[in-house]
Design a protein that fits this description.
The complex is a heterodimer of chains A (about 120) and B (about 280).
Chain A (H helix, E strand, L loop, with lengths): L3 E6 L3 H11 L5 E6 L2 H9 L5 E4 L8 H9 L9 E5 L4 H10 L3 E4 L4 H12 L2
Parallel strand pairs in A: 1-2, 1-3, 3-4, 4-5
Chain B lengths: L1 H47 L9 H62 L5 H16 L1 E10 L4 E8 L9 E2 L3 H9 L3 E2 L7 H6 L3 E7 L2 E11 L8 H43 L1
Antiparallel strand pairs in B: 1-2, 1-6, 2-3, 4-5, 5-6
Helix pairs in contact in B: 2-3, 2-6, 3-6
The chains are: A alpha/beta (about 120), B alpha+beta (about 280).
Amino acid sequence: MAALKFLVIEDSPTMRQLIRFALNRIPKAEVIEASDGVDGLKKLSSNEVDLILTDINMPIMDGLKLVSLVRGNDSYKDIPIVIITTEGAREDRERAMALGADAYITKPIQSTNLLSTVKELLKI
Amino acid sequence: MSEKKTKLFEKGEEFLEMFRQGQEFTQDLLKENERLRYRVVQLEETLKSGPNPSAGSPTDNSQYLELSRKVAIYEEKIQDLAGKLSEVEEENIDFARRYVDVEEQNNNLANLYVASFQLHSTLDYEEVLQIILEIIINLIGAEDFAVFLLDEKTNQLIPAGSEGVGLEEISPIAMGEGIIGSAAQEKTSYFNEMPPSTRDELFKDPLVCIPLLIKDELIGVITLYKLLQQKVKFAPVDFELFTLLAGHAATAIFSARLYSESRRKLTTYQGFLDLLSQK
């Protein structure tokens, strides 16, 4: 199996480490971290990413803006996007999905739930 | 007369011949009867040993008996295998249950490890405070909460950080005052099963109060007022996190304060030394 690159965009170092912990259980997983949307886009342009995991509430550029920019770019529009957020309202979920997110996970996360979502999206 | 005697003798001879023939016929009948009785006994014995659909020869019967014996053996084996299968299925269910437990434990340990790692990853007081807030939001799933630190001079709990509620909304609390002050004074955690219904009640009767302690020394209190919408109730790992926070957050805050104080003093002493050396 080829290495899988995950881009984790999250302003909280605690959450980044927790997500990295979960993703590292996937064989040959490579995790790239970014602390906000702008940083995320920069890392996206310099890496061949297989899946993006992003928070919504972040400084500089939030997760929803990032999702719409990624979906609007032909080079990245097919990359699966998983939203990981504290926002549990139905309308927040619907907005994110309408913008092009593929999955929506609310915090606090369960690593099993995160892994099964990621594996389902990547069909591994 | 002699002619008559001769005829009579001939008749007698004929009669005797008829009797002989009758005797032979009777003997034949008796023999046949005996043979048939023997056959009946044979058939009865065959019937006792099991039905024989082919009702064939003795060879067929022995094959039938052999097959019946094999069928009985295989039926026994099938029953044995069915028993083993149900045992294996039970084991599978047990393994699946254990796997879920291990996964949960793994998840919990990851949370605790990350929380502990992050708390001790810096000596910057503001960063430590920020990490405590992050842990409470992301790992516990609280929406409104505050961190109070004890001011030893005034013996009051002063709000140092919060989320969901503005710091200006939260008043300092005297030791022993209300639920938060009492939890701090008694150095025992407080858990409220029923969430407060109004915002005023929110501050008077929080969901959780966790005193931050280094051994027996109180550093502050963490109070949770409201959980995130999707967080219905506390999970077992939350209580582990509360225990971890009670000790590790207190140590991290204490260390960070001590470090910034010593840095400040070092700068002051360095200034003095510089002044003295210039003279």
